[in-house]
Amino acid sequence: MARPFKNGIDYFPFDVDLLNDRKLRKPKMKYGYLATMVYIALLVLIYKDKGYYLDYSKEVQDDVHLDILDFLQGKHQPEIETVGEVIQDLVACELFSRDRYSEAIITSYRLQCVYYKAVTERKRIEINWDIWLLDENEMRELGSSNSILSNYVNHIKNGVNRSNNKVNQSKSTQSKGKESKGKESKEKYIAPTGSSFFTDPEIISLFDEYLAIRKKNKQQNTERAIKILVNRLNQWPDPEKKQSLENAIVNTWKNVYPVNEDKQKSKKTKNDGGNPFEEFI
User: Fold this and answer.
1) Are residues 142 and 238 in the same domain?
2) Which of 44-48, 140-144, 190-194, 217-221 shows the lowest per-residue confidence on average (mean pLDDT)?
3) pLDDT tens, 177-219?
């Protein structure tokens, strides 16, 4: 009998700075120890089951809350509704991805990085690419001998091939009598520009310059990567957008950061210290 397929992991590294994460401050101020315990409980549920995400659709939300309450049994056990409120606050402070949460999925860059490194030796891993947050360059930095990376590359290639096949099928249905005798026109890839997402001329200019720097540094400006960048920038007012983009350009960062985090990020970049997973959170 074949061995049952397993996606989850049996243990995960508990970073000594995990509970000191600044993003956890507001939930802790509001809920005390409960915010910390719900956060850890979610990590345990995620790593144990799917490994890199948790289904949080309406059909299973109550089950998730009850599973968390199992970890919190005792004299001061909270109400089930309170657990749901804590989860919302953990997402709001970006300990988990807001974009994926809007799709009823709980995950984050940080835990996907941890999962990626934890399953390096596995030969068979099934990944839902609609949920996966890491791009090819980020995965290569974490380790190039991972089957997730090879599967991702094949997935991208297959997607390109399917796209080309559709174009060829479309061309084959056209009447030969309408074909031009001159040079055939070739479809060109049109890179996205800041004008597609912003209205402020200065922000558009900075965003375009930042994309050019990413491309020069061989960081892929994929549709997913740009969507993440735009969503992140749109969390801040225009002056902070500009400052964040300027700082990212000057320091050639692969991501944009809140202005109040830029100084600390800059120091970590220079000292090559800090949490290796921080930029993926």
Assistant:
1) no
2) 190-194
3) 444 444 443 333 345 677 778 888 888 888 888 888 888 877 7
138 and 220 share one domain = no
- Same domain membership, residue 214 and residue 113: no
- Both 126 and 243 in one domain: the answer is no
Q: Same domain for 22 and 144?
A: yes
Number of domains in the chain: 2
Arithmetic mean of pLDDT, 5-33: 83
| pTM score of the predicted model | 0.56
pLDDT tens for each residue of 242-278:
898 888 888 888 788 888 755 455 555 445 544 444 4
Residues 24 and 120 in one domain: yes
Three-state SS sequence of the chain: CCCCCCCCCCCCCCCCCHHHCHHHHHHHHHHCHHHHHHHHHHHHHHHHCCCCCEECCCCCHHHHHHHHHHHCCCCCCCCHHHHHHHHHHHHHCCCCCHHHHCCCEECCHHHHHHHHHHCCCCCCCCCCCCCCCCCHHHHHHHCCCCHHHHHHHHHHHHHHHHHHHHHHHHHHCCCHHHCCCCCCCCCCCCCCCHHHCCCCHHHHHHHHHHHHHHHHCCCCCCHHHHHHHHHHHCCCCHHHHHHHHHHHHHHCCCCCCCHHHHHHHHHHHHHCCCCCCHHHC
pLDDT digits (tens, 9 = 90+) for 103-131: 999 999 999 999 999 988 888 888 999 99
Considering the domain architecture, whether residues 272 and 210 belong to the same structural domain is answered as yes
Q: Classify residue 164: in a domain, yes or no.
A: no
Find the domain containing 120 and state its range.
18-149
